[in-house]
Design goal:
Number of helices: 8
Oligomer: single chain
Helix content: 40-55%
Radius of gyration: 15 Å
Number of domains: 1
Strand order of the largest sheet: 4-3-2-1-5-6-7
Shape: globular
Largest sheet: 7 strands, parallel
CATH class: Alpha Beta
């Protein structure tokens, strides 16, 4: 089994974000679940890859050549796939993975999560999609998703395709069903 992690290329303003990324990486390795992620050595991406590898797990990166050229590719992964662009990156990450977890991050993280969740809504896959709400980072987003549902723009059946987890244990469990 492999889980794709979407997360920031920065550490963010709270140590809890990196702590959750490291805990998630260790747990993936301990449960013999492979990590699929964006292939970078920086931010939460680097934290989760390093934690997974230190715990003896497999870390598979998928990174566009343009980011390799900027020298942010992780040098020590189990496997690295260098692709031509972001669309190819997301498609390959999806193909390699059995589930998806989003840690804190920026617009790239949100875009990846929303695209994979949309693919589930459209029936393109039936893999679990999880939002790991570390230190309530995504609290206002969750409130907005509930508002979208109440307003009739997001079907309850689609809303329920995104699980909200408050810690790595819950996130992995949601992907293991």
């Amino acid at each position: 089994m492999r889980i794709c992690i979407f997360c920031g290329s920065k550490h963010g303003d709270l140590p809890a974000y990196a702590e959750a990324a490291a805990e998630l990486g260790r747990m993936l390795a301990q449960q013999q679940i492979g990590l699929v992620y964006g292939g970078a050595s920086v931010g939460l991406m680097g934290v989760i890859a390093d934690a997974t590898l230190r715990a003896g797990g497999d870390a598979i990166g998928v990174i566009p050549q343009s980011l390799v050229d900027k020298e942010i590719a992780h040098p020590d992964l189990t496997q690295m796939h260098v692709v031509s662009g972001m669309h190819e990156r997301k498609a390959l990450m999806a193909d390699l993975s059995d589930g998806f977890i989003a840690l804190p991050g920026g617009i790239g993280t949100l875009e990846e999560l929303f695209e994979i969740w949309t693919w589930a809504q459209l029936g393109m896959h039936n893999k679990p999609c999880v939002l790991l709400n570390v230190a309530d980072y995504y609290g206002q987003l969750v409130e907005f998703l509930d508002k979208m549902t109440k307003a009739g723009y997001l079907k309850e059946s689609s809303r329920s395709m995104l699980t909200i987890a408050s810690n790595p244990v819950e996130a992995i469990a949601a992907c293991s069903h």
